[in-house]
Amino acid sequence: MDATASGTPTIQYHNIPDQPITTIVATPVPTYERRQRHCFGTSSTPGEFPLAANPSIVLHVLTACNLDPQDLAKLEGTCSFFRQPANFAPDFDLCISELAAMDMCQKRAIFKPMTTEQRQELKQKCGGSWKLVLRFLLAGEACFRREKSQAIAGPGHSIAVTSKGTVYSFGSNSSGQLGHGTTEEEWRPKPIRSLKGIRIIHAAAGAGRTMLISDAGKVYHFGKDSFGETEYGVQGSKLVSTPQLVESLKDIFVVQAAIGNFFTAVVSREGRVYTISWGSDDKLGHQTEPNDVEPHPLLGALEHVPVVQIAAGYCYLLALACQPNGMSVYSVGCGLGGKLGHGSRTDEKQPRLIEQFQFLNLQPKVVAAGAWHAAVVGQDGRVCTWGWGRYGCLGHGNEECESAPKVVEALSNVKAVHVATGDYTTFVVSEEGDVYSFGCGESASLGHNSAADGQGNRHANVLAPELVSSLKQVNERVVQISLTNSIYWNAHTFALTESGKLYAFGAGDKGQLGIELVANQTERGNPELVDIDLR
């Protein structure tokens, strides 16, 4: 389901008046004149665009075909017809390609409810062009499956969201993080009934805590009543076992959330990042008390730059930003192991641009933050990793640290579209839907199992990317991988297919796989189908 699913998409006509059929059908002309009309032109005579007399038709075609912003820009660069004012409402000075971009923006669910003033503010923040606004909106949808089915392999518990916005939860529930009004474990996926009538478009899971975001930009949380230290900190003594609206975020239209170990971060519809907690030592650009639950904007280099995606590691944050000259990545937080990507291991209290991607000539498309390492997929399908290299989680064939992004050469023949990271573990999904994994093999969460008896060396560490052959056997294209990103919990992994089927493997001792284990079983080495339809 794409971003138009929350309403029937329509083509905007911009109050174009009806035209007589005679103005659309060309009047017959003598043969000798027709031979002189050449849309490509000659060395002495400029070409003519065949539909230039009827720009309304061109606008409808461009909008209906959902051309991407780059294609619209190329049209402007190759034909003056697409650069000149189209004289259409609501903005008579806009050219055809800009109008088409604006129409396609209006199809996006998060853009529809914005006021005219809010839309203009977003346009200026993106660089003053509707094509850049469209790129910003499309990038956000691609990064974290906004308004599409998704599965989250949290620390000990799991969240699954259908394409229609229904939420299922299962696994550990000691803090009420399943949202069912109890603290009892559930191995069978169970819908959160108190959310009936609320369409959820995004989910995030931390240790003992869950956050959900609705299509109206509202944030709900349950589990530990904490936005700071999620594992064993002093916060979170109060438990919330049913979804509650986060009051401190009610005036911000939120589209994504990320939960680190010491902090929580959210992204607004306009691309502004807010962080909560962990500011006592100016660690995230602001100073607050540890129990502060108020959101604080992440300023500095990101103050006027729209962000499309964030990713939270154990003690750091990555932000994928959309700028007129392309996509870029910023990092802030703890720099141990080089996981901030700046060529050093020093902390950054303010967001700082990772410059290495410019030297690699790589346009970032998706970012992922593991507990101690990070990864990026480029527009060209290359994968970069950096940070702690323990257990081979960087995929470079060794366990060395990398303090700046480095291309995974073992994937040079693979065009990647998605990457997921956990605690010293990395998964990559190719354009064809193949899955590769590397890093720590604990809990059989890598999916490698070569032995016929199903036991083999499924716990072995993998220093370089290996194809997860067990997922090839499902005979479906994988579109998303999610794995546990916590240093305190045994890891499990989800693979979501194009048809909405969910496969699980790894640790299942708390019911987090959504599969009933028998006898003394605590994990599953091979992907197994979860009894849930996420379409």
Outline of the structure:
The protein has 535 residues and is an alpha+beta fold. It contains 9 helices and 28 strands.
Architecture overview:
The chain is of the alpha+beta class and 535 residues long. 13% of the residues lie in helices and 30% in strands. It has 9 helices and 28 strands. The protein has helices at 21-24, 31-34, 55-64, 69-78, 96-105, 116-126, 130-144, 356-359, 469-472, and strands at 150-153, 157-161, 167-171, 186-191, 200-206, 209-214, 219-224, 239-245, 254-259, 264-268, 273-276, 296-297, 307-312, 316-323, 326-333, 348-353, 364-369, 373-378, 383-387, 402-407, 416-421, 425-430, 435-439, 462-467, 478-483, 492-497, 502-507, 523-529. The strands form 7 sheets. A 4-stranded antiparallel beta sheet has the order 1-2-3-4, with no helix packed on it. A hairpin with a 4-residue loop joins β6 and β7 (219-224). α4 packs antiparallel against α5, α4 packs antiparallel against α7 (130-144) and α5 (96-105) packs parallel to α7 (130-144). The longest helix is centred in the N-terminal third of the chain and has 15 residues, at 130-144. The chain is globular and about 75 Å long. The relative contact order is 0.09.
